[in-house]
Structure formats: C-alpha cells, structure tokens
Design goal:
With 152 residues, the protein is mainly β. The chain folds into two domains: 1-68, no CATH class; 77-151, Beta Barrel (OB fold (Dihydrolipoamide Acetyltransferase, E2P)). The protein has one helix at 3-15, and strands at 20-24, 30-36, 40-41, 77-80, 85-88, 104-105, 110-116, 119-124, 129-134, 141-142, 147-151. The strands form three sheets. The protein has a four-stranded antiparallel β-sheet, with no helix packed on it.
C-alpha cells in the first residue's frame, strides 16, 4: 500500500463518524485504526509512515510493505545496502561527502556509512567507475538490498 493511500485512509477515518476500522488485504497486510474520544486515533506507527502525521496512526502492518517507485532501466553497476540502518554520505556533519554525482571511484573507495545498532559501517565500492546517481539522502533509513548508488 502506497503512502498516499495510507494517508487518505487515515484522513477519511478522521473525518468519518467511525470509531474503529480493521482491514485485511489479500497480500497479508492488516491495518487497524481506532478513534478515541471521537477526535483522534492512537496506535504505534510502523516504519513505513513518517513521524510527521495527523494525530492518528496505523497499528502494525503484519506483512512487509513494499514502496514501489517508477521503475526505470538502470544502466551501470548498482551498489545495494548490505544491511538495515541509517545512511550517511559523510563521516561527520561538517565533513565533505565521500562521493558526489560525477565522482570517480575505484574498487575499495568508501562510498558512505551505514549506522546499524550504533556501529558505523563503511560501505566500499565494488566497482571502478563514475557515480551516476546517488539514490539515498543523508540520514535516510535504508533497508537491506535497497539501491544506494549507480556506478558506470
């Protein structure tokens, strides 16, 4: 389920007279919402919903939720995240980024850092080439296997 669909569902629930709603989709995703005092909804927020939301939240999505973006043909070598964590493009807030779009890299060069469980893991290039695209932003949460860089 896409973010916009979730947000619309939350807005519709907030504007309706319903006090409780449970939905189970064929792909196994379950959404449950409950309105307290007829004005706001409260429940834990799953990782797929940004924290700046209206005062209602979704209870656990019980199956993995895939966020689909426009699929385009990727030309070049792809560097994927080897773990779940927080993406950092530089070693400290005041430092320069390890690489930028157009940077030339060699196998073994540090591309970024992914923080996982308070450990800083340097992600090194597996390829020689030029950074064509950087697919994550500083302090983004990244998933295992998520595309981070395209190198030609």
């Amino acid at each position: 389920m896409e973010y916009q669909e979730i947000k619309k569902l939350m807005d519709d629930m907030g504007n309706s007279k319903l006090t409780e709603l449970e939905i189970e989709f064929p792909d196994g995703i379950k959404i449950s919402m409950k309105k307290e005092d007829g004005k706001k909804l409260s429940a834990p927020v799953p990782a797929v919903v940004p924290q700046a939301q209206p005062p209602m939240n979704i209870i656990q999505a019980q199956a993995p939720v895939e966020v689909k973006s426009e699929e385009k043909k990727i030309e070049g070598n792809v560097v994927k995240s080897p773990m779940v964590g927080t993406f950092y493009s530089k070693s400290s807030p005041s430092a320069d980024a390890f690489v930028k779009k157009g940077s030339k890299v060699k196998k073994g060069d540090t591309l970024c850092i992914i923080e996982a469980m308070k450990l800083m893991n340097e992600i090194e290039s597996e390829y020689d080439g030029e950074i064509v695209e950087i697919l994550a932003s500083d302090e983004d949460m990244v998933e295992y296997g998520q595309l981070l860089f395209i190198i030609k």
